[in-house]
Structures are given as structure tokens and as C-alpha cells.
């Protein structure tokens, strides 16, 4: 499948691995793929994100991903559902970090020991790549571009799609921008 990826899509996959390495994660997750997409310049995704107001909120997305990682990967919707049951996720994170150090629930602790070897892709990251292929095929595109990876991230439940949707980056909005729908129309979605 990787041979069908454009140069930009390959750069996203490579960037995701680099984000995982910097975080000390043993697997490449969907969140790492989103971070790699946010790093892109001069690509279709950078155009789409700029058209959707990305210059104003890219740091907010990075911050929201960091907060979700601190919550052990729980989305805000999951944290809110637990709050409805009387469980304060923020308090649990604070207590765990008090005992085990900042980042204990995220896997970002630096004292875990040295990791060597290739990082595998998590089930979620593999799903994003498979969805990107399906989206490219459905759109009758010959190659899988970084825009297909962004579209795939918007279609699966979880932290990346929730954070993107909070910033107006939905599947429908991305499709409108890619289809030439105009910036104002895309923002309304």
C-alpha cells in the first residue's frame, strides 16, 4: 500500500514515527499522525487547514492533543461522560501524577528506559491508513495523499477527530475545501 502514497503522505507517516519517537511512545498512534499533518507546509493538507482557519488554532490543537495524552488518551467526550457518573478525570490524573510523575498516564515519562527498534503502528493508526486508502479509492484518486489521511482522521471516532471537529475541521468541511467549495462555505460546516 505504501507505494501508492504520494511524497506528502509518506512524509506524514515518517513524521508520525518521529513524533512517536520524541514522545517515547512504543507505538505510532493516530494522534502522532495528526501532529505530523499539522507540521506539513506546502501540501494539500496545509492548504485545507489554512482555508479552515488553521493559522489561528494549530497550537490549540497541539495543546488539546497533549491534554488528551495526559488523560491517558481519553477524549473530552469520554471524560465528560465519566464526569456525568461522578468521576473527575482531572482529579484522577492529578493524583496519579502526584505519585508517579507528570505524564504517567500518557506513557510520556522519560524514565521508562531506552526503547530501541522499530515502532509499530497501533490498531487506530493502521485503521487511519486503511481508511485513507478506501477514501482515495472512493474518490477515484490514483494515489493516497496527505488529504486522504486527514479525511480518514475525521471519519473515525477518537481524540483526533474530536479535536479537529472542535476546530471546524470535519469530514464535510475538508471535502468542501478540496472540492473547491470556497472558504466561507467550508467554515460554515
Automatic annotation (TrEMBL):
<dbReference type="GO" id="GO:0008233">
    <property type="term" value="F:peptidase activity"/>
</dbReference>
<dbReference type="Pfam" id="PF02861">
    <property type="entry name" value="Clp_N"/>
</dbReference>
<keyword id="KW-0645">Protease</keyword>
<dbReference type="GO" id="GO:0006508">
    <property type="term" value="P:proteolysis"/>
</dbReference>
<keyword id="KW-0378">Hydrolase</keyword>
<dbReference type="InterPro" id="IPR004176">
    <property type="entry name" value="Clp_R_N"/>
</dbReference>
<feature type="domain" description="Clp R">
    <location>
        <begin position="2"/>
        <end position="185"/>
    </location>
</feature>
<keyword id="KW-0677">Repeat</keyword>
<protein>
    <submittedName>
        <fullName>Clp protease N-terminal domain-containing protein</fullName>
    </submittedName>
</protein>
<dbReference type="InterPro" id="IPR036628">
    <property type="entry name" value="Clp_N_dom_sf"/>
</dbReference>
Amino acid at each position: 500500500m505504501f507505494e501508492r502514497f504520494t511524497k506528502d503522505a509518506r512524509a506524514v507517516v515518517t513524521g508520525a514515527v518521529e513524533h512517536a519517537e520524541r514522545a517515547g511512545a512504543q507505538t505510532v498512534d493516530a494522534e502522532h499522525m495528526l501532529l505530523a499533518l499539522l507540521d506539513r507546509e506546502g501540501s494539500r493538507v496545509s492548504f485545507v487547514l489554512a482555508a479552515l482557519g488553521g493559522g489561528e488554532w494549530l497550537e490549540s490543537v497541539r495543546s488539546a492533543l497533549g491534554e488528551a495524552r495526559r488523560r491517558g488518551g481519553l477524549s473530552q467526550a469520554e471524560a465528560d461522560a465519566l464526569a456525568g457518573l461522578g468521576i473527575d478525570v482531572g482529579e484522577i490524573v492529578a493524583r496519579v501524577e502526584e505519585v508517579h510523575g507528570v505524564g504517567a498516564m500518557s506513557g510520556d515519562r522519560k524514565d521508562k528506559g531506552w526503547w530501541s527498534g522499530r515502532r509499530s503502528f497501533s490498531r487506530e493508526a493502521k485503521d487511519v491508513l486503511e481508511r485513507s486508502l478506501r477514501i482515495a479509492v472512493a474518490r477515484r484518486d490514483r494515489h493516497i495523499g496527505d488529504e486522504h489521511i486527514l479525511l480518514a482522521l475525521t471519519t473515525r471516532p477518537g481524540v483526533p477527530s474530536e479535536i479537529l471537529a472542535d476546530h471546524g475541521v470535519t469530514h464535510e468541511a475538508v471535502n468542501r475545501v478540496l472540492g473547491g467549495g470556497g472558504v466561507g462555505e467550508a467554515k460554515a460546516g
